[in-house]
Amino acid sequence: MKPKIIFRKATISDAVKIKKTIDAYAEEGIMLFRPLYEIYGSIRDFFIVEKGKKVIGCCALHVLGEEYRPGRQGSILAEVRSLAVLKKEHGKGIGTQLVKACINEAEAMEIDKLFTLTTKKNVAFFKKIGFKEISTAKLPQKIWQECINCSRFPADCNEVSLIKDI
Ligand SMILES: CC(C)(COP(=O)(O)OP(=O)(O)OC[C@H]1O[C@@H](n2cnc3c(N)ncnc32)[C@H](O)[C@@H]1OP(=O)(O)O)[C@@H](O)C(=O)NCCC(=O)NCCS
After folding, report:
1. Regarding beta strands 113-119 and 76-85, do their DSSP bridges make them parallel or antiparallel, or are they unpaired?
2. Which has the least CB within 10 A, 59, 93, 98, 151?
3. Rounded mean pLDDT, 31-58
4. Where's the N-acetyltransferase domain (predicted)?
5. 99 CA to middle of ligand 1, Å?
6. Which helix (H) or strand (E) holds 27?
């Protein structure tokens, strides 16, 4: 019998499996390594996909807060981050469903805009889900707070910013 595929919010016992899923791509320089303490600290951000007892995909919705717009109210921004699907499970719609789960949760939380930082290779994937490319200069500076952990920052940065209104 084929193992069941389940999409759900992560729990504490998923943290180590989430780290392994991300590490597989971080070792290739495609994603940033996430320390385990940080995954525990943001465990409520994560959705996972489980196949049998294995985690085969993960994605996080991380709330950043209000954009600073002098003299007027700014939009509430959140980030779709730590999206990873195991290579042998690619092309089955799992990545799309994970991002859609984040979109649905963002809607329920009354978030105005979702953004993501990704590589050129993934731009088409996010555009299919309704994200649009945006100049990074138009996003608040705090979105770059994690960039200092990236070996490519700043001269060799290969990230593209995409945004979606909710
Ligand atoms: C990006 C990623 C999560 C996509 O996961 P996936 O489960 O294969 O995606 P889906 O099956 O939902 O793909 C949906 C569609 O996008 C396409 N697609 C998937 N990845 C793509 C990519 N990198 N570039 C262009 N198109 C892509 C698929 O072919 C599919 O097209 P279709 O609807 O016409 O069949 C996966 O490739 C991955 O884990 N990549 C490595 C980690 C990474 O880059 N994470 C993003 C960090 S922001």
Report:
1. parallel
2. 151
3. 96
4. 5-166
5. 11
6. none
State which of 31, 61, 90, 143 you would mutate to test the pocket of ligand 1, scoring each by most atoms of that ligand within 8 A of its C-beta: 90
Q: Any idea which architecture 5-165 has in CATH?
A: 3-Layer(aba) Sandwich (3.40)
Instruction: Verify whether ligand 1 is closer than 6 Å to residue 125 (CB atom).
Output: yes
User: Is the pLDDT at 43 greater than 90, yes or no?
Assistant: yes
Within 10 angstroms of residue 166's Cβ, the number of other Cβ atoms is: 17
Model pTM? 0.91
- Give 109's contacts (C-beta < 8 A, 6+ positions apart): 63, 78
Check if 84 has its Cβ closer than 6 Å to any atom of ligand 1.
yes
Q: Is residue 154 predicted with pLDDT exceeding 70? A: no
